[in-house]
Amino acid sequence: MPRSSNLVAARLRRKKIIKKTKGYFGRRKNVWTVSKNAYEKALQYAYRDRKTKKRNFRSLWVMRINAAARVHGMSYSQFMGKLSANNIELNRKVLADLAVNNPEAFKAIVDKVK
Question: What is the mean pLDDT of residues 28-33?
Answer without folding.
Answer: 96
